[in-house]
Each structure stands twice: as C-alpha cells, then as structure tokens.
C-alpha cells in the first residue's frame, strides 16, 4: 500500500529516532510462518537520504508502529539502494521477527529431555532458544496480542492458552536441525505454533476457528 492511503507507519530505533517517509509497504503475517515479512520502499526527501542510509542497516532491531499501535520488534534483513530515474534515492528494506536467529541457527546437538512424567513444553522451548536471547516466560494469550497490534480490543477471541498444560514426555535434537525446527517439531504435534508477540517475547499461537478473521 502507498504510505498515507490507509495507515501511518513509522520505524523506530533504540535511540528514539524514527523513519516515516515510505513509498510502499507490504506486510505478511500468517499462522504457519513464524517470521512474517515486512517490506518497505522509502524515497526520503533529499535532506534525509543520509539519515536513512545510516539507520537502515542489516541486523538493526527496530520497532514498527501502525497508526501509533506497536506491531512489535523486527530485525532488518536486507537493504537495497536504488537511484531513481529522477535522481532520487530509493531504499528497499525487508524485516522479520527476531525468531529469524534461531530459525537459521543450529540447536545444541546435546539437547535432550526424557521424563517419566510429561514435562512442560515451555521449559523445553526455552532451553533450545535461550542461547538466542529468548529467556522469559512464554505467553499464551493471543487475543491480547492481537488487540495490542490492532489498537482495538478484540471481542470474543480465544481464551488464553495455558502454556504449562502443553506437555511432552521426551525430546532429542537431531543432526543438522535448527533451534526453531527442534521446537516446531514438538509444537506442531500439539496443534500450536511459536511466534513473537508485540513485546518481543515468545507466544504460543493456534488458529481461532470460533472467531472471524481480523
């Protein structure tokens, strides 16, 4: 969509500065894709070209806002610079959620778990993803997360899922497996998927079949 036609979008950095001049924005978020995809084309005014060039760097963690509603933290993955026919500079940027790091990074090959009594899946997931900075309690309230992203309370959404109720009797890392693949192999059997919520923490999500799409 063209900037200004439907929403105000800004990309905010850790120092509080923000970029908000966009030609084109394309966002994709599906239950089956933990990374999402947020693509931006920016043609800043001439006096802001160097600001955009310096800020838009691969690996930079940014926060996206749509109409002042926080969409979450995202890592810049690619930045391509073009010179337009009119001599202006166009930056093409793609961002993904912080799960891109365990999605690409390997799991500890020694990671394994076996218990006489089923263990909470959340504990297993945190062991696998802890080396990538995910070390806080896993969220199970997707309705509250959607409400935060849209900026409007979601009525009739699914009740929070009790993450501790998700159990697994054993888990063992496989050769060549990424950290996210290890977790997904367990969670998929339980009908849920792992994503990042608006605060950057891990969240367990499942399709809400009893509610209209948002």
**Would you list the SSEs in sequence order as H and E?**
EEEEHEEEHEHHEHEE
Terminal-residue CA separation? 18 Å
Instruction: Record the strand order, biggest sheet.
Output: 2-1-5-6-7-4-3
The number of distinct β-strands equals 11
Portion of residues within helices: 10-25%
Binned strand content:
25-35%
Round the Cα radius of gyration to an integer and report it.
19 Å
Shape: globular
Main sheet specs: 7 strands, antiparallel
Number of helices: 5
Mean pLDDT: 87
Residue stretches low in confidence (pLDDT < 50, at least 5 long) are 1-5
Return the structural class. Answer: alpha+beta
Describe this structure in words.
By secondary structure, the chain is an alpha+beta fold. 19% of the residues lie in helices and 32% in strands. It has helices spanning 49-55, 100-104, 121-129, 142-150, 179-189, and strands at 9-12, 18-19, 24-28, 37-42, 61-66, 69-83, 89-96, 112-120, 167-172, 193-196, 202-205. Strands 2-1-5-6-7-4-3 form a 7-stranded antiparallel β-sheet. Strand 6 and strand 7 form a beta hairpin. Helix 3 runs antiparallel to helix 5 (179-189).
């Amino acid at each position: 969509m063209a900037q200004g036609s439907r929403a105000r979008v800004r990309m905010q950095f850790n120092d509080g500065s923000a970029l908000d001049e966009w030609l084109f924005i394309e966002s994709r978020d599906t239950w089956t894709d933990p990374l999402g995809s947020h693509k931006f084309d920016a043609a800043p005014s001439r006096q802001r070209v160097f600001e955009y060039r310096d800020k838009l760097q691969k690996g930079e963690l940014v926060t996206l806002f749509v109409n002042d509603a926080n969409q979450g933290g995202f890592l810049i993955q690619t930045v391509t610079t073009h010179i337009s026919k009119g001599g202006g500079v166009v930056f093409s940027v793609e961002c993904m959620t912080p799960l891109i790091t365990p999605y690409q990074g390997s799991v500890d090959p020694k990671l394994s778990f076996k218990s006489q009594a089923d263990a909470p899946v959340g504990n297993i997931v945190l062991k696998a993803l802890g080396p990538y900075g995910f070390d806080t309690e896993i969220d199970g309230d997707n309705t509250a997360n959607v409400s935060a992203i849209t900026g409007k309370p979601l009525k009739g959404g699914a009740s929070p899922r009790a993450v501790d109720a998700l159990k697994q009797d054993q888990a063992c890392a496989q050769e060549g497996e990424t950290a996210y693949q290890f977790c997904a192999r367990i969670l998929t059997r339980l009908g849920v998927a792992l994503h990042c919520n608006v605060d950057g923490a891990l969240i367990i999500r499942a399709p809400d079949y009893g509610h209209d799409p948002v």
